[in-house]
Amino acid sequence: MNLEASLFASDIISDPVGWTTTTISSSEMTWELNRRRWLRSLNSRFIYGTLPLLHTIIFCIEMALFARLTSRFNGYYEERPILTMMVSNAILGGIADTVAQSITAIRQRAVRKHPYGLDAREDAAAIEIHELDRKNPLSDRDLIPDSKALPPPFDFERLTRFMAYGFCMAPVQFRWFKFLESTFPLTKASAFVPAMKRVACDQLVFAPFGVAAFFTAMTLAEGGGTKGVSQKMKDMYFPTLKANYILWPAVQVVNFRLMPVQFQLPFVSTVGIAWTAYLSLTNAAENVQPASKPNNTEQESLPR
């Protein structure tokens, strides 16, 4: 038995969730080994030495799905508005997490190539990401820690969690926007003041709820339990809410003032690609343990 098969067999033996009571056929093991080799091969390939190939393929598939949905959005919305919003949110959440994982992969590759320091001539993109981390005004800790315990080259489970979260939150957001529309109606005589009332209500009521719902759902989905939720909220809730108030009031002014109601959630979700990518990086960084670099001076990246 080769090394990879031995490792896979040891994974099965050590897995406490039912593997020891299940007989694994040779064909199933062969399929699993081939799947792992295929993913490993894709994960090890980079475009121009910088962009991870697998991440890029997944991003292109997601963008193709989004383009398809956009081309027929009005028709889908008229037939099934809530389902259309749910699918839109799921795809956009997937795009955001793929972007976040791509940033992490670029940074991780650069750190592994240059464990004693990054060469800007070879890793300009990674250097730029590292500089953004260092200048991050919202925290004194790196957004992407220098650690070998970072997420794997592509985490399909994490992608699924983000898409599922976007899918499930869409009805709540849809009803919320409907509530704001009926409570603060815009008229030709008075449009600015009701729009400002919508923004204020959204940021004072829904934003704190949305941040809490995100970290709660993600932590529970990762198996963190109530203690994990409590710790995540303690560490990340207020810094993330602060970041929210930097971005979203201005976005919502445009949204509530100019966007028709059927485009408000897609508009928010599109702008939210960057925001969700930030949340994805923040949520992932919180689970990373600090690691020291192999040089004479001990340097540690604190977990988010």
Describe this protein's structure:
There is one protein chain. With 304 residues, this protein is mainly alpha-helical. The chain has one domain. Helix content is 72%, strand content 1%. The protein has helices spanning 3-14, 26-43, 53-71, 73-79, 81-113, 124-134, 156-183, 192-221, 225-258, 261-286, and strands at residues 46-47, 51-52. It has a two-stranded antiparallel ribbon. The protein is globular and about 70 Å long. Mean pLDDT is 76; it is low at 10-22, 125-129, 137-151 and 289-304. This is Vacuolar membrane protein. The chain crosses the membrane at residues 46-66, 86-106. It is found in: Membrane.
Multimeric status of the protein: single chain
Q: Percent of residues in beta strands?
A: under 5%
Q: Strands across the major sheet, in which order? A: 1-2
The helix count comes to 10
Helix residue percentage: over 70%
Q: What's the overall average pLDDT, rounded?
A: 76
Q: Show unreliable segments.
A: 10-22, 125-129, 137-151, 289-304
Q: Report how far the terminal alpha carbons are from each other.
A: 41 Å
The count of DSSP E runs of length 2 or more, i.e. the number of strands, is 2
Instruction: Round the Cα radius of gyration to an integer and report it.
Output: 22 Å
Order of helices and strands: HHEEHHHHHHHH
Question: How many domains would you count in the coordinates?
Answer: 1
Secondary structure class reads mainly alpha
The major beta sheet can be summarized as: 2 strands, antiparallel
Shape: globular
Keywords: Membrane, Transmembrane, Transmembrane helix
Protein name: Vacuolar membrane protein
Organism: Podospora pseudocomata
Main location: membrane
